[in-house]
Specification:
5 strands, cell membrane, lipoprotein, methylation, Ubiquitin-like (UB roll), prenylation, Ubiquitin-like_domsf, alpha+beta, elongated
């Protein structure tokens, strides 16, 4: 019975509203391992998928989960329903997109237009 309680049913909600899972994970599973699992299960037909673990952020109970934590450490008492499924939201943020945003916003900030008549 203790082994069943050390397992957590998790489904991953993608930004378009679709899900990966649910799948059972041991409480000792690291968040980095969950992210690796998401990478391998990511639907091939979806665009802008993550390339590395660094591109993925997991959110559970309103908190961004850190890679060095375990599922058991991140478990929220509010979401811990026996036999229930925990939903974690997946945010994909690639470094390339961040750089493009910064590059496109900098010229706009530095522009000054003057007209002398």
């Amino acid at each position: 019975m203790a082994e069943v309680q050390d397992q957590l049913e998790i489904k991953f909600r993608l930004t378009d509203g679709s899900d990966i899972g649910p799948k059972s994970f041991p409480a000792a599973t690291s968040i980095a391992s969950l992210k690796e699992s998401i990478l391998t299960q990511w639907p091939k037909e979806k665009e802008n998928g993550p390339r590395t673990v660094k591109d993925v952020k997991l959110i559970s109970a309103g908190k961004i989960l850190e890679n060095n934590k375990t599922v058991g450490e991140c478990r929220s008492p509010l979401c811990d329903i026996p036999g229930g499924v925990t939903t974690m939201h997946v945010v994909v943020q690639t470094p390339l997109v961040e750089k493009e945003k910064k590059a496109s916003s900098q010229p706009k900030e530095n522009k000054c237009v003057c007209v002398i008549l």
